[in-house]
Amino acid sequence: MELPSALSKALIKRGSIFHSKDDRFREIGHGKYFAVIGVSQTRVVGFFFINSNINPKEWKNSARFALQYPIKAKDYPSFLRHDSFIGCASLQEWAYDDLLDSIRRGQTEYKATLHESHLRDILEQVRQSEVFSEEEIESYFGE
After folding, report:
1. What secondary structure letter does DSSP report for 82?
2. If you ran DSSP here, which 8-state letter would residue 80 be given?
3. What is the Cα–Cα distance from 77 to 47, expressed in whole angstroms?
4. Beta strand 84-87 pairing with 92-95
5. What percentage of the chain reaches a pLDDT higher than 70?
6. Which domains does the chain possess?
7. Which residues share a beta bridge with 51?
């Protein structure tokens, strides 16, 4: 189902959760869930992947490991089948217009919105983390 342009644009905002089978994830080998954390002034969407398990490389770095935010399936029953983690140590970027095009083509679809308390916790953690640059914090995690 193709969403009207205005609705598609309204969905691309902090806290929105999407599932995408876009070509950009082809090398991963499967669709990916992700949560939008911010949209920069240059219209780039910053997001974190939602993963079933913590990536083993994150276990080796305590600052990055601390940014694996657990979410429960019972809190997001519309799309989660089991408890998962938002990988908040790895900021991903996607040009706003390209994400919008992926939604219009049906490759990416809106699934849910992060609970306000989860979004607040994540923002507090990433704003205080040594993992991100001042520019990233300002661009994606600011007020």
Report:
1. S
2. -
3. 21
4. unpaired
5. 94
6. 5-133 (2.30.30.110)
7. 85
**Could you give the CA distance from residue 69 to residue 78 in angstroms, rounded to a whole number?**
19
Helices and strands of the chain, counted as H and E runs? 5, 7
Q: What is the mean pLDDT of residues 126-141?
A: 94
Arithmetic mean of pLDDT, 48-72: 94
One-letter identity of residue 106: G
Per-residue pLDDT tens for 103-115?
999 999 999 999 9
For the chain, the maximum distance between any two Cα atoms, rounded to a whole number of angstroms, is: 44
DSSP three-state, residue 12 = coil
- pLDDT tens-digit map of 62-77: 999 999 999 999 999 9
Given a contact cutoff of 8 angstroms between Cβ atoms, the answer to whether 30 and 20 are in contact is no
Q: How many angstroms separate the CA atoms of 71 and 93, rounded?
A: 22
Q: How many CB atoms lie within 10 A of CB 82?
A: 8
Question: CB within 8 A of 81, min separation 6: which ones?
Answer: 73
* pLDDT for res 36: 97
Query: Are the CB atoms for 127 and 137 separated by under 8 Å?
Result: yes
